[in-house]
Amino acid sequence: MPESKYGKYIQTDLKENIKIPSFRGREAPNIGQGLLNGYRRRMEHLFWLDKEVFPFKDAFYSEIIWFWPDIMTRGKIITPEEASKSPGVPPHVHPFPEVLCYLGTDLDDPHNLNGEIEFWLGDEKFNLTKSFLVYIPANMKHCPLRHLSMEKPLFHFTMGSGEEYK
Q: Is 82 exposed, middle or buried (0-12, 13-18, 19+ CB in 10 A)?
């Protein structure tokens, strides 16, 4: 952003060299690299916010991501059986509360995910087919999180009151 009184609070580019915790390391090659071999990736980060992006005492962690169905990436179509075997994001905890949200992109039916997300809170499994937002208290085990099916793009964001993702 151009120099101004408040321009420092506006992010228009994805943070470079994002350090992903080792349990999510398989995502690292996908972050901020655009097309892969001329095709859209299944997961494309738009923004990453943390204390390095906004080095202010009250900055917090956040990610914003597009997920694209295989049909849009020209990738291998993943069957529901294959998706159910994928480990997804493994179980973990954060020392801060987190909000996690998935939004369907059907403008005529925005509450419909047009897909299915498996998400665990503690030892309870949820299979979600509607747009959702979940509050995860600090130190609560959550995940696995797996995309079981996806017919249309999904918009995802997550944020936590911690200064960085850990």
A: exposed
- Name residue 127's beta-bridge partners: 118
Cα separations in angstroms, 41 against 22, 27, 44, 98 = 21, 11, 6, 26
The domain segmentation of the chain, as residue ranges, is 19-160
Residue 7, SS3 per DSSP: helix
Whole-number Å distance between alpha carbons of 105 and 41: 17
Output DSSP code: residue 39. Answer: B
d(C-alpha 75, C-alpha 78), whole Å = 9
79-94 pLDDT per residue, tens: 666 656 667 788 999 9
End-to-end CA gap in the chain: 28
Mean pLDDT of 126-145: 95
* DSSP bridge pairs for 62: 49, 159
Specify which residues 28 forms β-bridges with.
Answer: none
CATH domain 19-160 topology: Jelly Rolls (2.60.120)
pLDDT at 46: 79
> Phi/psi at 131 (nearest 5 deg)?
-50, 140
Helices of type H across the chain: 70-73, 80-85
Q: What is the DSSP letter of 125?
A: E
How remote is the C-alpha of 130 from its chain's centroid?
16
